Amino acid sequence: EKENKSLKYTSNVDNVFPYYKDIFIHFETPLQYANFDNMVVMEDTIDILLDVHFTDSLKRILRIQHEWEEGVKYKIILPQESLVDIYGQESDSIMFNFTTTSEDDYGSIKMDIKIDSIVHTGYPFILMLVQGQAESEKVIQKHVIYGDSMMVFPHIIEGDYFLKALEDRNKNGRWNTGNYGQKLMAEHVYF
């Protein structure tokens, strides 16, 4: 007996989807075959075409690009067996139903960041707008800055946020704990 396995995937699509974002589908295994000819895409009741492509050479990350209309219902269907991974596992039907947000759902945060006058390091900083507590914090947006900057965080929903700045001494785009053997201190974090 053959075990019925289908492709495993995750996506960034919820029932309500930001109108300014692209859809990403991350497959657990690389794909060998993909056919988008029978893909159905509806904007309300009208058939539309989307830009669909893989962002990596292993074909694990599928990107769906479109200039979504604000406050509109969409349906995307990838029929069964449209995708096959390198182990021969075929996809079940993949369906997304969502309504896009509108500009009225968001605000923005604008701030004048003065790093040079506080810390004189010469290193870039990773500036993160964060929501939640220390154990469950979620980075909403992040930017790399090189000194004093006027920052704008667009498309922010109502809520409580805090700002976190990481001094990126090795310029790898993330916080490093340091290395006792190499006598390297952990990168500084500012709130």
What does the model show?
This protein has 191 residues and is an all-beta fold. 0% of the residues lie in helices and 43% in strands. It is built from no helices and 17 strands. It has strands at residues 9-11, 16-17, 23-27, 31-34, 40-43, 46-47, 51-54, 61-65, 73-78, 83-85, 94-100, 107-113, 125-131, 138-145, 149-156, 162-167, 189-190. Strands 2-11-9-5-6 form a five-stranded mixed beta sheet, with no helix packed on it. Strand 5 (40-43) and strand 6 (46-47) form a beta hairpin.
Short overview:
This protein has strands spanning 9-11, 16-17, 23-27, 31-34, 40-43, 46-47, 51-54, 61-65, 73-78, 83-85, 94-100, 107-113, 125-131, 138-145, 149-156, 162-167, 189-190. With 191 residues, the chain is mainly beta.
Features:
4-stranded antiparallel sheet, 5-stranded mixed sheet, mainly beta, 191 residues, 17 strands
Q: Report the uncertain regions.
A: none
* Number of E strands: 17
Structural class, from secondary structure content?
mainly beta
- What level of helicity do the residues show? under 10%
Which strand order does the major sheet show?
Answer: 2-11-9-5-6
Biggest sheet descriptor: 5 strands, mixed
Strand proportion, as a percent range, falls in 35-45%
List the total number of helices. 0
Alpha carbon gyration radius: 21 Å
Amino- and carboxy-terminal Cα gap:
58 Å
Task: Please tell me the overall pLDDT.
Answer: 89
Any idea what the shape is?
Answer: globular
| Strand and helix order | EEEEEEEEEEEEEEEEE
